[in-house]
Design goal:
Blueprint: H1 10-13, H2 16-27, H3 34-41, H4 46-58, E1 62-65, E2 68-71, E3 79-82, E4 85-88, H5 90-105, H6 115-141
Antiparallel strand pairs: 1-2, 3-4
Length: 142
């Protein structure tokens, strides 16, 4: 059993390998076992997984349930959990600006294209592209 200080906070725990373990547990719909985590994350030994699980349990982020571990609290900034999928918050901004650009180019298009219209389309498209890139980079990092 790992003994940690009683004033353990989430920011101190959610780093490196412990963060990987936490993300793995969050993604799972059912309790995950130590060996499953070890194989999936390519850890050297089950005791290393247990060490990180105990740290997460002590911080109140996961709990033991049945024969495995489940997330007790979802505590990842800039991420929304939908069932077992983690979606970056930037994705919703990406959708908003993409739909805005599509609306500007189709329904809101004036009969005579003006400089202001082009600036608005370029701004909306640039925002959609920027949020698309951020969404992609966060999705790869989750």
């Amino acid at each position: 059993m790992v003994t940690l200080s009683s004033n353990l906070n989430e920011k101190d725990v959610l780093r490196g390998k412990a963060l990987q373990v936490y993300r793995f547990v969050i993604r799972s719909n059912e309790p995950v076992r130590v060996r499953e985590i070890q194989r999936s994350l390519d850890f050297s030994s089950p005791s290393l997984v247990i060490y990180h699980l105990e740290k997460l349990k002590e911080a109140g982020l996961i709990k033991e349930e049945g024969m495995g571990y489940v997330a007790d609290r979802v505590l990842l900034r800039n991420v929304v959990r939908f069932r077992s999928t983690l979606i970056p918050r930037y994705f919703f901004y990406f959708l908003f600006f993409t739909l805005g650009a599509i609306l500007e180019l189709t329904l809101l298009r004036p009969p005579v294209v003006t400089r202001e219209y082009l600036i608005a389309v370029m701004f909306t498209s640039a925002a959609a592209i920027a949020f698309g890139i951020e969404t992609y980079s966060h999705w790869r990092g989750i």
